[in-house]
Amino acid sequence: MERNANNSEKIRELEEELSDEKIAELFKIDDENVIHAAEQARRGKRLSMRRLIVVLAVVLGIVVLMQFFSARVVYERSMEDTIAPRDCVLLALKAYNNAGIVHGDIIMIETYLLNEDGRARDLIKRVIGLPGDTIEIIDGGVFRNGELLDEPYAKDEVTAGKIAPTLVPEGCMFVLGDNRRISIDSRDARVGLVEFDQIIGKVVFRLLPLSRSGPLS
Q1: Sheet holding 141-144: strands in order across?
Q2: CATH number of 74-215
């Protein structure tokens, strides 16, 4: 009898623990957990989607920029002291039509010269003469249309060589390097007058070294 009484007491305790209120409360907790988990999953998906959109936007931006800009490392001394060897510069590609070039622009051009490995050699030079200009070099000075140019960018401010008055024809430019003593440019028959089609881009910015980074003009 005592054992039956104990069993009955335990059954009553279990019934109290598993009452409708307790069961409802347990289900409520389960529902809140499920809702919370579902909301966390949705937030995770939204966050992943945002990250994917950001990555795609960055990649697209890089692809677009590569169509208009290119970074190049300079290895030659012909543009010292404006641009030194190992400087990394930014080119604005396709920056010109025939009316877009101005005196003093620094440009990269294709040439028929070859590097030691046999590849075509690209040069960076400064635009001195445009179509219709008459260029003359005499006694270390550069004259454009009869006027002596003030060229503080020219290394040593001396231009070696002698050029008789030369009319720049339509579609061409007369270019010089800033380091006039060693530069291969329009004074040299291997380069001569540069055609617009030879322009790769305009040098607009020095990226490296950071100590000298900034726009170039």
Answers
A1: 147-148, 141-144, 134-138, 163-167
A2: 2.10.109.10
Residue 70, both tokens: 């290119």
Residue 74, CA distances (Å) to 13, 67, 88, 122 in order: 88, 20, 6, 10
pLDDT digits (tens, 9 = 90+) for 188-207: 999 999 999 999 999 999 99
| CB 198 within 8 Å of CB 111 | yes
The pLDDT tens digits for 38-57 are 667 677 777 777 787 877 77
Residue whose tokens read 């697209």: 60
- Say which of 78, 155, 183, 186 is annotated catalytic: 78
- Asked if 45 is an active-site residue, the reply is no
**Closest C-alpha to 130, from 161, 90, 91, 171:** 171
CB contact at 8 A, 195 and 172: yes
Q: Of 21, 72, 26, 59, nearest to 206 (Cα)? A: 72
pTM of the model as a whole: 0.70
* 94 assigned to active site: no
Q: Which candidate in 8, 45, 125, 155 is catalytic?
A: 125
Q: Which of 202, 185, 187 is nearest to 111 (CA)?
A: 185
